[in-house]
Amino acid sequence: MPRWVVVLGIGCLLGPDMLAAQQTRNERLAAAQRAYEEFDTDQALTLLRAALNPAEGPQDSAWARGVELLGQILLEAGDTLQARVWFRWAFRTAPTIPIDTVNFLADVVQAMRGARAAVTASPGDLVSRTTWQWAALGAPPGQGRLQLTAPRMTAPVNALVPGAGVVQSGQTVALAAATYEIQTAAEGYLTTQLTREVLPGVTTVLEFNLSPLSAGVLASNVRAAAFARLVPLTVRRFPSDSTCATGALVGGAGLVLTSYTAIRGAERVGAVVGSRRFGEEIRVLAWDVARNLAVLQVPVGGADSLPLASQVGPGQFVWALGFPNCQTPLDTRARVGATVQPALELADSVRDAERLGPLINSDGQLVGIVTAARAGAPPAAVQAVLDAARRQVSAREKLTVAQVALRENHAYGSMAISADVTGVTARITTLETWQWPQLAWSGPLPRTFAGPMGRYQLDVQFPGQESRRLQFTIRAGATERFPVATRALAAEEPQVGVAPPRRGKKFPWPIALIGAGGLGAAAFLLFGGGGGTDTGGMTVLLPSH
Questions:
Q1: CA atoms of 101 and 92, how far apart (whole Å)
Q2: Per residue in 177-207, pLDDT tens?
Q3: Could you read off the pLDDT of 462-471 as tens digits, one per residue?
Q4: Cis peptide before 444 (omega within 30 of 0)
Q5: Are 64 and 72 in contact (CB under 8 A)?
Q6: Cβ distance 392 to 379 under 8 Å?
Q7: Strand 468-474 and strand 454-461: pairing?
Q8: Which residues pair with 257 in a beta bridge?
Q9: What is the pLDDT of residue 11?
Q10: Is the distance from CB of 66 to CB of 58 less than 8 angstroms?
Q11: What are the pLDDT digits (tens) for 310-365?
Q12: Domains of the chain as residue ranges with CATH
């Protein structure tokens, strides 16, 4: 008997389902593609549901294409809800999988992109583990199941599950295929929330290990040790008085980690380490404008420093530490939000954020730096800027904060704006790429406006007149005046920083006509492309020669 007949005979005896059970993951995916091309969508779905089991193989590009193919079959059948559930589950299981925009329908690509955008981290991710008990191959999809376990906890977990009510650890409930936001609690433990998908024909198993209530308390000895490693900073920007900020000793060699905002535009900075005060000796070794981090160096040796945490996760308690008035210590508790990269999201608002510095966990380890009321720089960003700073420790030339301000066009100046009548209001907005939106101001004149160097737009409203739009330019370290008159002759308005036209010989029109072709290049050379220094990347000091 020919070999192919034997194989065919075995195939007939076993049937398609038994053969599919013996196939590898990639063979199932390939077989599903062939079945789809031959319009056998039921067989394709059976093969795909089995092949997408995470235990069958890695969540790679082949697996991702299988997800898209399954979703395309469901969408073509009109089962949009189930397709979206599979897509969200896929991105929650493997967030970085690619989307094939060439070989699948536009509706599939759009649904995949929507699922990727909808999937975010949950606070409960840090205290839970998700596994799946896949249905037997060929079993009808039916409903999915959700099972809760808590083998390492001393108290049962109660979970509020939409559509099922309260489910206790050890129980399994049947649910429609969908995405569920699950609230969990247990006596003596911190409550949490997480989002998970329940797939048709699959049992989703959630294993909880909630944090004890003590995890939300910063022990007094940990707090004292952390504050002993903080550095109160006094920062002066032209022409205002000093403000307060906070740094932390990290990594030895006198390295002080703080936010870039803390030193942005400063002309001088002071620091207190223990009982010693520093000023002119302070240098900047590295800074990252985009991630809002800076590393200073003070001439101290052997100073104890904060240890770095290896990771931080959603729902974790952290404490923002600092000296809002440069002397009195303050700690504010917050929870990490759903996002930890590229920025650390805080679920709770932190007061006096601009004057605080490090974020620590309950063990006193540094998990980030406060950069805004509800945001911080995560450990990976902190490690990167510290690595850059360590490479500059032995450099001959190191910049002062004032030199950094000039390099980034953040050095401050001021403009005294006045009007010749009362009741005049004005609005100031930024024009340069290196300036930040928070500099915008509106209110009555007169006003002395302080900000980083560069051009600003001034909209002035006189009583009974139309609004007038002007410009002024701030120069680093300078205070200038900008009087605005009621008369409407625009030619007589002062334009600070704009040179007056020159008077000289009669214009050589023949030469102008001959050189008309080079007019565009000349204009570019004369007036430039506008804008300024792009501050989007990390900057480290490179010695000059």
A1: 20
A2: 999 999 999 998 888 889 999 999 999 999 9
A3: 998 999 999 9
A4: no
A5: no
A6: no
A7: antiparallel
A8: 248, 295
A9: 35
A10: no
A11: 888 777 899 999 998 888 999 999 988 877 888 899 988 898 888 889 999 999 99
A12: 3-118 (1.25.40), 123-212 (2.60.40), 220-406 (2.40.10.120), 409-492 (2.60.40)
